[in-house]
Design goal:
This protein is mostly helical. The chain has helices spanning 2-124, 129-133, 139-151, 162-173.
Length: 174
């Protein structure tokens, strides 16, 4: 019996070893299957991400091409047009500056005329209405006003001459 039990034990050990081997195989098959499923899932996610990135990269490439085309358009077409327009506007700016100079000269002359007219009105105006009421009392004041009025000589101020202004503008533009 001892031999039976030893051979039974050896047989049981053999069965156990084969069971362990089959369990190992089943566990490793399950692990491999799970790993394979995980790899497949991760691969699918990675492929989707790569496809999305490729789409965005294509959009970016198209934008860069558009920018390049626009840059070439600016350099070859719009920049020369802009330069020509600036040259035309530059002469216009010069004319505007000259016009401002003429307007300033005319303004200065009008200010001078207004000042002269005000001075002439003060010096050549008739006697104040209040003084007329008191004329008999202030006859001496009246005589001095008449003397001042008649002694005041009006000399017209020198004002601009359009021909002089135009010739001045032509000299500035040359």
């Amino acid at each position: 019996m001892a031999r039976n039990s030893q051979s039974d034990v050896e047989m049981d050990i053999g069965i156990l070893q084969s069971d362990i081997c089959s369990i190992k195989m089943n566990i490793s098959d399950e692990i491999v299957c799970k790993i394979q499923n995980k790899i497949d899932f991760e691969s699918a996610c990675l492929l989707k991400s790569i496809e999305k990135l490729q789409g965005q990269l294509e959009i970016f490439k198209n934008l860069l091409e558009m920018i390049q085309v626009d840059t070439q358009l600016c350099q070859e077409v719009l920049l020369p047009q802009l330069l020509t327009s600036f040259r035309n506007v530059s002469s216009l700016f010069t004319k505007i500056d000259q016009l401002e100079s003429v307007v300033e000269t005319i303004k200065d002359n009008i200010d001078l005329l207004e000042k002269e007219v005000t001075t002439a009105e003060i010096n050549l105006s008739p006697v104040n209405p209040l003084k007329r009421l008191f004329q008999p009392l202030l006859s001496a004041v009246r005589e001095t006003n008449i003397t001042q009025t008649s002694s005041y000589g009006f000399t017209s101020p020198k004002i601009f001459n359009t021909t002089d202004l135009l010739s001045q503008i032509q000299r500035q533009s040359e």
